Amino acid sequence: MVTGVPTVSPNSSLEHALEVMGRNKTRWVSVVEGEKLVGVLTLESLFKAYEREVSRKSANQGPSYDGDAV
């Protein structure tokens, strides 16, 4: 088995995956469940997922008001 490969679990947060990438100075991490490789997360795919999450949260918040409306 190869050791020293940066990994995260399928349940890891996007923030944790980004931390692992930064700590290992890499643009990808292996997604491992037990000892089985279930995927690879790249920096590009992480940014796309984060962008979707931010857009989804913004859409669910509705309009914002500055409190000065009459």
Descriptive report:
- This protein has 70 residues and is of the alpha+beta class.
- The chain has one domain: Roll (CBS-domain), CATH 3.10.580.
- Helix content is 43%, strand content 21%.
- The protein is built from two helices and three strands; from the N terminus they run βαββα.
- It has a three-stranded mixed β-sheet.
- Strand 2 and strand 3 form a beta hairpin.
- Helix 1 runs antiparallel to helix 2.
- The chain is elongated.
- The N and C termini lie far apart (67 Å).
- The model has no long low-confidence stretch (mean pLDDT 86).
Question: Summary?
Answer:
The chain is of the alpha+beta class and 70 residues long. The chain has helices at residues 14-24, 43-61; strands at 7-8, 28-33, 36-42. The chain has a single domain, classed as Roll (CBS-domain).
Number of helices: 2
Number of domains: 1
Arithmetic mean of pLDDT: 86
Order of helices and strands: EHEEH
Protein name: Chloride channel protein
Domain CBS: 1-58
Organism: Candidatus Aramenus sulfurataquae
Keywords: CBS domain
Please render the helix and strand layout as text.
Elements: E1 7-8, H1 14-24, E2 28-33, E3 36-42, H2 43-61
Parallel strand pairs: 1-2
Antiparallel strand pairs: 2-3
Helix pairs in contact: 1-2
Name its key features:
single chain, CBS_dom_sf, 2 helices, Chloride channel protein, CBS-domain, CBS domain, about 70 residues, about 45% helix, 3-stranded mixed β-sheet, CBS_dom
